[in-house]
Amino acid sequence: MPKDSGIGAAIKRREDARFLLEAVVTVMISHY
Predict the structure, then answer these.
(1) Looking at residue 2, what is its pLDDT?
(2) What's the sign of the alpha-carbon dihedral 21, 16, 19, 28?
(3) Where are the beta strands (DSSP E) in 1-32?
(4) What's the mean pLDDT in 1-14?
(5) How far apart are CA 31 and CA 14, in angstroms?
(6) By C-alpha distance, which of 15, 19, 18, 22 is closest to 7?
(7) Which of 4, 10, 13, 29 lies 20 to 30 A from 20 at CA?
(8) Dihedral in degrees, nearest 10, Cα atoms 12, 14, 16, 17
């Protein structure tokens, strides 16, 4: 089981979560 692919998946998951969080924050800011 290669570590690189696990790390890459973790980084991609973190980037996706960050993008989702930024989208939620943007919606909340524009909602108010």
Answers:
(1) 55
(2) negative
(3) none
(4) 76
(5) 25
(6) 15
(7) 4
(8) 170
Tokens encoding 14: 């973190």
Label residues 1-32 b or e (16+ Cβ within 10 Å = b): eeeeeeeeeeeeeeeeeeeeeeeeeeeeeeee
**Mean pLDDT, the chain, as a whole number?**
84
The answer for residues whose C-beta is within 8 angstroms of residue 9's C-beta and 6 or more apart is none
pLDDT of residue 31: 73
Task: Quote the pTM value.
Answer: 0.55
pLDDT value at position 4? 65
